[in-house]
Structures are given as structure tokens and as C-alpha cells.
């Protein structure tokens, strides 16, 4: 008999007999009732409390803010997608700026060391955010691969202000995640951090040192 | 690499040594002090009891349907392109993982934090097979450099202070000595990044495995878990069979409980949900994902209605952070993979009571562990049950039951029982004891090492009450 069959047989032939499955009441995960303003304020307060930065940008002119941000942070090489509207608008605006745009729509094997060593920042869109915890959610795609939000030392994420849900539970249920899970789904709440050295917080231990959220209003 | 040896058999000596080590005591006192407050603050806005109730229900529901959910998980993982393997025990899981590594010609693997891999001593096994496994979590990395095991399930290097860590990094990696945490972290980042790129295989644990969607969830702050499961060509996830949950919607309540209970964070930096290997059109992520489901004694715990509660654990470590014993003796004293209260109820199942008989007694039964447990595991009750098992008064369901049974003790309690149920003998016995009190010994073995020996009272309680009544009535 295989390990699988043995394990399942032992579990099915329980000495103390079959177990009753209790019902779960998820009420405690819902009913926050925050307004859109409250959601945004809450998201901002929480993500900044864990070292994330939030910049409010205008819907029409957000790329101008992006250019200024790149200048302030001395970002010379920016990795970004091609087909997402965010990436398209950014590429258009940055075409004339003194910034090297790094394409990410190629197999990582071809440019792994370049990505690890020669990219200053990664720009991604986001699916939205969660007010309760100050989290962004991302579903990486072929246009914006998984490592784009992880490997470069700075992660710039663009968030639409009207795409903030109250709770993770509601986000998942309202958007029907269980019917449609991608190869990788992420919640990101701040830049990479550790407290493993005597509980002293340090940022950027493996992933980005900085997370900047551009909130489009 | 030899690892400093601690064993559960030597709990008393190890605890004694730790109590006599001012450095260890100071490190733990400093680390644990803030954690209790942080946890309390993190739940301030919540109806905590209702949330704990939900967490416990979700875990119980998953356990009630465990065999079916494991099959559903397997089917849905396979549909997502994740290859599923089953292992009866730690050795079989090690063999499976080593074989997968060898099939890919892996000489170097990076590892995210995984307690089940500690439980099965995976690193040592891989090393014997000629495969170098490097821990990628900073705390685990430091502990590995220091040739130790983790002393806490969430904060592996909590027993080390900044100076000690500085010395470890200097001695083992040649890093310039510094007390600057940012400098040390940046150095570790650079060292690890090379390893992520060089590794052929990434090995991780699993926090929640979702049956409904075939998704593996990983909770972390550092990003090493994402690196480990994304950069190498092959990702092998290893988990105990109890980590499965039924629905995707079961995950948010457990995640809310886990991050707040563990470190008092509202949320961790990353919540990573892995739904399979890289698709043909995708540009990064592993090309193969494997899931190894490990039993290792869990299906045995599962047989018993009471002991089953142990399997609810979501590995948050809150019971350790609040345990007056753990916070004084530290994790290494227990000599087991899982230390503290959860370790004291889990390890007897995994290792048998012969080796672990001291652990269920390494508790004052103050109840703090049960009070903070996010999924309401009645840890104090289980400690008592295991004490009964150890002296042969349980159901005999734990390996090594009865190992602590002592004939003299049994006879003494039997005699006591007889006395207490025979009033005449009791009365004359207590009177005689009162008269002979000068003869009672002042040393009673271990009991009197830190306590004064009891002495019968000059006058019995019955006599005192009688006298009191006489005086108040007259």
C-alpha cells in the first residue's frame, strides 16, 4: 500500500468515529461600513505605519508625479510592463525623460543578474487594496511578472483610489477569487522587513527597501 | 556541519543551565516583554472572542473532513500543475525531497522557514546526500551559521542579541564587526541574493493549503519566502497533512489571527498565494511545483477526540510568548523542534513519551497559553491529559504511555485514597501526624530543592473548627 492510501485509511477509520463539522459564521469579517474616504484614509494610515509611502496623484497627470518621484529618488533604470494602461502611459511620459526603461516581458533566465543588480525600481499596477490592513493586492501576469514587485530595491505601485475594499475576506468573496485563482496572488503591505536581529526593525532585507504607492484620485 | 545538541530527555538540566545564564535570560526578557502588549493592541478593534471562535471552527471543520479535503487538495493541485507526494514519516519525506533535488541535479537549495522540515531534520539529510541547504529567512540563516536550531517557531534567533549576531556574521562570513542592524541586514541581503540566483531548488513550508482551489499560502515579512518559491527553477513545498483548509474564504480569518497572535502585526508584509508553476506564456516563477504531504504521527493524534485539538494549531507561537516557563528558560531548553506549550503537547506524539515525558510537566498550568491561543486549543487540559498518559492513567494512545509510572508514587496515592475515604483512620492518622511532626523529614527529593517541606500542623483542622465553634457559641 502506498503512503497515500495508508494515511487516508488511518484518517477514515478513526478510533473515536466520524467527526461533526461545525458551521462557520463569517460575520466578524464583514460589516465595517467604511465610506470611500474612510477606506482611503485607513489604507494610507496603515501602510505608512509599516514604512510604505503614499503619494496622491491626479488621474490625468499622474505620470508627471512619477517623473518627479524618479528624479527625487535618483532612479535611473526602471523596470515595467508594456501592455497594461499604467505601463503604457508611463512609457509614453518617460520616453523623453532621462530614464532607462527595462523590459520585463522576457524569460527571467535571459536577464536574471541584470534584474538583481541593475534595476533601480519596478513599476506595477495593482488590483486594488484592503482598508483594514493597509494592503495592496497584485496578480502578477506575463506583462508584470512575479519578481517585478520583489527584486528591485524600490517598488512603485499604482492604485486606483476607488478600488479599496474593506477587508481581505470581502475582497475575496466580492471578486469571486475562488473561481478564478491565478498562478500567483499577492498581498503586499509595506516594504520587505525583518526584526530578526534583537527585534530591531530593518527594511529591505530581501525584497524592496522602499514601497511607494501612487494613489490615483 | 554539526548542530549543538539539545534533547528533551535533558530538559531539567537544560532549563537549569538557561536559568543560570544571565545572557539568555536577558535576551528572552527583552524580546518577550513587548510581544504581549503588541498582540493585545493588534486585536483592540476586534471582537476577539468571536474571531477566535471562527478560527477554531474553521480548523475543526477542516479536521472533520480531513481525508476528503486532502483528496480534493490533491486533485485541485494537480489540476493547477502542482505535483503531489505523500510521506508516512519524516524520513520518507526527506527521501522524496532528496530524490526530487537529485533528479534536477541540484547541489544547492535555498529554504524558506518551515517547521515541518525542522521536525524531519531535512537539512542534515540533504547534506548527507551531498546537497547544501541554505536557510533564507534571516533568523534561520543566523541560527544555521551559528550551528544551532531555532529557539522559537516564529523568531528563530530570538535567543541571540545584536553583539552575538555581529560576532557570528564576523566569524562565519568575514563581515566587518558592527552593531548597526541595517549594515548587518544589508550584508545578509547581498549574501543571500547570490544564493537565490545560484540555487537549483527552493524549498518552503506552507501556512495554509486550500483544498477548494489547490492554492498554497505563505505568510512572511522578509520576502525570502517569495524569493525561495519564485527564483529557483523548482519549488518544493512541504507541509504536515493538518494544514489543509476547506475553502479559500477560510483563509482571511486564520491569517488575521496568525499575524496578530504571532508578532502583534495587523498584517505581514507579504501574503503569497501560490497556484501553480509558471504557465507557458509567463516569464518567471518555478517551472515545477511539488507539494509533499507529511503525516509523521499526525494521523495517530487524529484518532483521539481530545488529543485531536493539537492539530488545530496554526503555528503562531503566541503560547510561547505568553508562557512563564518558555519566557524564562527559552526554546532550546525543551530540546525539541517545537518548544513551549504547543511543543509540550505536540512533541510527545511525534517522539513518544519515553523521550518527552518531562515536557507536559514543564508548565505551571497557569492557563495563559490556552487563553491566548487564536484557535482555542485547550493546551492546559491537553498537558494534564499527557501527564495522565505518562503515568499510565490515560487511554494509552500516546507512544510510551505509562513511562513515568512509579510504584512508590502509586502506592502512596492508593494509601492516601484509603485514608481519605475512611474517616476514623483519617482522624486518628492526622492526630498522630500532628504529634509526630518533629519527625517529618525536611528534605523530600526534588520537591524541596526550591520549596520548604510541608509539616503537619500541631492541631488538625477539624479540631481547630471545633474549638472555634465552642468559643463563638459560649
TrEMBL record, chain A:
Annotated signal sequence is none
Q: Which residues form the LUD domain?
A: 41-215
From which organism does this entry originate? Pistricoccus aurantiacus
By what name is this protein known?
Lactate utilization protein C
Q: Which InterPro entries match?
A: FTHF_cligase-like_sf (IPR024185), LUD_dom (IPR003741), NagB/RpiA_transferase-like (IPR037171)
Automatic annotation (TrEMBL), chain B:
UniProt protein name? Iron-sulfur cluster-binding protein
The lineage is: Bacteria, Pseudomonadati, Pseudomonadota, Gammaproteobacteria, Oceanospirillales
Q: Does the keyword Iron apply?
A: yes
> What does the UniProt keyword field contain?
4Fe-4S, Electron transport, Iron, Iron-sulfur, Metal-binding, Repeat, Transport
* UniProt cross-references to Pfam families, sorted A to Z: Fer4_8, LUD_dom, LutB_C
GO BP, one example?
lactate metabolic process
Molecular-function GO term, any one:
4 iron, 4 sulfur cluster binding
Question: Key word 4Fe-4S present in the record?
Answer: yes
Q: Out of the domains of life, which is the source?
A: Bacteria
User: Which SUPFAM superfamilies does this UniProt record tie to the protein?
Assistant: alpha-helical ferredoxin, NagB/RpiA/CoA transferase-like
> Residue limits of the 4Fe-4S ferredoxin-type domain?
304-333
